[in-house]
Design goal:
Elements: H1 5-20, H2 22-43, H3 50-60, H4 64-76, H5 78-93
């Protein structure tokens, strides 16, 4: 895991772009930056684990509005986020 916020953002750029599309990628990365600030305020940790970021992207399903909702859920209760992500994955599998 990269140490600084800029390095973490750079590491996530390709993954976020693939999940959210090129047009929304920059805004999605900005949202993750904001979520990191909230995460730090709530948990005194610099950033959530990458599984939390993956779960947000899974639940967003390419929609920035959904991503905002699930980024907030990540900070409020990451366990509920994880459950939501599993439900999305199960639905995709059929």
């Amino acid at each position: 895991m990269a140490v600084g916020r800029a390095a973490r953002r750079a590491e996530r750029t390709e993954r976020v772009g693939a999940a959210m599309g090129a047009e929304q990628s920059s805004a999605a990365l900005d949202l993750i930056d904001l979520m990191e600030y909230a995460w730090h305020d709530c948990y005194q940790e610099i950033t959530p684990g990458e599984q939390v970021v993956d779960d947000i992207l899974t639940c967003a399903e390419g929609d920035l509005g959904r991503m905002i909702h699930f980024a907030l859920l990540a900070v409020v209760d990451s366990r509920d986020l994880h459950l939501a992500a599993r439900l999305v994955e199960d639905r995709r599998k059929g």
